[in-house]
Design goal:
Layout (H helix, E strand, L loop, with lengths): L12 H5 L12 H15 L6 H4 L5 E4 L5 E4 L4 H14 L9 E5 L5 E6 L4 E4 L12 E5 L11 E4 H11 L16 E3 L12 H12 L4 H8 L3 H13 L3 E3 L1
Antiparallel strand pairs: 1-2, 3-4, 3-6, 4-5, 5-7, 8-9
Helix pairs in contact: 4-5, 5-8
Length: 244
């Protein structure tokens, strides 16, 4: 498991390409999302986390029609990552053929830059919630792949992981037949330690030991069915497990 800054590009393209498109409306009620974030943070212990992972402490700067500075409801880091992941999942078809993909807000403002060859994603800091509605992907040449130095560095696996953990209806990402088949381990996902809770480590250890079916993992981990579905979907999306 890596830090975002030292991201390893090894993510199976087939795992990403096989994902179903997410629901058209991928925005969860904020109260529900914040409860999920609180639960995750409680399991991550004393690891130092960015305030933007949870926080709505700062305001995103915008401008009005007269050019006057205004403020808008800021998006947390997780809300941003969910929106970016959903957009990339919906437009995944021809991404690998391009040097980079710009993710644009409805008004055309650049929000993030995705580099398919490496899996790296650069994200503009302090986005407003309204900028996440109607994101669109725009293929660009290699000359447009550079991002400002102060943009947040993350990766496609990290975005997909967070989508599986926090997005509404993410329990449905694990195909039904995967619940009937033994699941096989293929290696640790290239993720920063801050995204991995103790229950994820336990689940990975069990899958490393031998192939397991869903019901076996349900009994061994003691997780709720919904949480186990999300955690297995996350491992599937980053290429760590397949049916045996």
């Amino acid at each position: 498991m890596n830090s975002d800054r030292s991201y390893s590009p090894t993510v199976p393209g087939e795992a990403f390409a096989a994902e179903p498109a997410p629901p058209a409306d991928h925005s969860a009620p904020r109260e529900t999302l914040l409860r999920r974030i609180d639960e995750e943070l409680a399991q991550l212990g004393d690891i130092e986390l960015s305030s933007w992972m949870v926080g709505l402490q700062s305001e995103a700067a915008t401008g009005d029609a007269d050019g006057e500075a205004t403020t808008a409801a800021p998006a947390s880091e997780i809300e941003v990552d969910i929106a970016l992941a959903a957009t990339l999942m919906q437009t995944r078809g021809g991404q690998q053929a391009h040097a980079c993909v710009h993710l644009l807000a409805q008004d055309g403002v650049l929000v993030a830059i995705y580099r398919p060859a490496s899996g790296e994603v650069a994200v503009r800091d302090r986005l407003a919630l309204r900028e996440l509605s109607g994101l669109r992907a725009h293929p660009r040449p290699a000359a447009a792949a550079a991002a400002p130095a102060n943009w947040r560095a993350t990766s496609l696996p990290a975005l997909l992981w967070r989508y599986a953990q926090f997005a509404p209806l993410a329990e449905q990402l694990l195909p039904r037949h995967w619940r009937e088949l033994p699941l096989r381990w293929h290696g640790y996902p290239p993720l920063p330690r801050t995204l991995v809770a103790g229950r994820h480590v336990r689940l990975m250890q069990l899958l490393q030991q031998r192939d397991h079916r869903f019901e076996e993992l349900h009994a061994l981990t003691g997780l709720s069915e919904g949480q186990l579905l999300r955690d297995l979907a996350a491992l599937r999306m980053v290429g760590s497990i397949t049916p045996a």
